[in-house]
Amino acid sequence: MYVRPAAAAAAAFLGFTLTLLGGTASSAATGPSVPSSPSGSAGGAGPAGAPRLLGPVVYAHRGASAYAPENTLAAIDLAMRLGFDWVENDVQRTKDGELVVVHDDTLARTTDVEQAFPDRSPWRVKDFTAAEIATLDAGSWFGEEFAGERVPTLREYLDRVQRNRQRLLLEVKKPELYPGIEKQTLQVLDEAGWLDTDHAQRRLVVQSFSADSVRLVHDMRPDLVTAFLGTPTVADLPKYAQFTDRINPWHTTISADWVAAVHGLMGAHGKAMEVDTWIVDDAATARKVQGMGVDGIITNAPDVVHQAVLGALAY
What we know:
35% of the residues lie in helices and 13% in strands. The two termini are 30 Å apart. The protein has helices at 7-21, 27-30, 73-82, 113-116, 130-134, 154-163, 181-191, 197-203, 211-220, 237-241, 256-263, 283-292, 302-313; strands at residues 57-60, 86-93, 99-101, 167-172, 204-208, 225-229, 246-248, 274-277, 296-299. The relative contact order is 0.15. Strand 6 (225-229), helix 10 and strand 7 (246-248) form a beta-alpha-beta unit. It has a 9-stranded mixed beta sheet. It is of the alpha/beta class. The protein is built from 13 helices and 9 strands.
């Protein structure tokens, strides 16, 4: 789901939500998205049958992407100002081997690549060098106030998340297009200081739609928390539990019974498996999946979801 609000409407709405949430970076530590640790404590599923002390963790999908251009530094900065410390991103690779943060395997939707390089159709990420991509405008498509935003490299993105004291749900995107991207991603994470004990246990989750990719990450770094994007059958869940800690499904594909089945299994780190569902952008759906017992909600509009689940907890 792609949200492109008018600048005036977005500004008015953000003024309202910042007032509600306090709009300060310090709220990330104690505010709306109090994160679960990879062991499944605050906000997540504890031991099977244990009561949930907090509501679902709220993840800012591609940053606060309902209000800023997705996967840009502006989007994660806005998530911080709204009080959310978990952000989600997508990682792909350029022609010359640089890892960049962008969702689509082409650059056309979220940059001005068609104007900048009109003869390079279909404008695939893997057909452009990092230097070429660095020249693109990744903000104007969303709103004039974001003109000049760039497609960040993974290292630039990690440095900003670190500066913001945020946490990262990192998706290895379309690994079939980029052989060896799992090892390279881990190398960049390591060079940026993101594979120490603190990050591995509390501040980083690596996910993919590819089970093979998730398994590779787990095999190379068994200390990391991993997640599979999809909705395996209940019968197949034990296979995934061997190499992952979380199953992250599309919200329309799950039920309370399915969530309970995931929670009933011990994941790769010997803890109850968790469920973080996506993409939930409205209050009614947020309350619905909260009622199913999910541990996290991945959303373009984290303030909307937070207010919904907070309200449900009040009753």
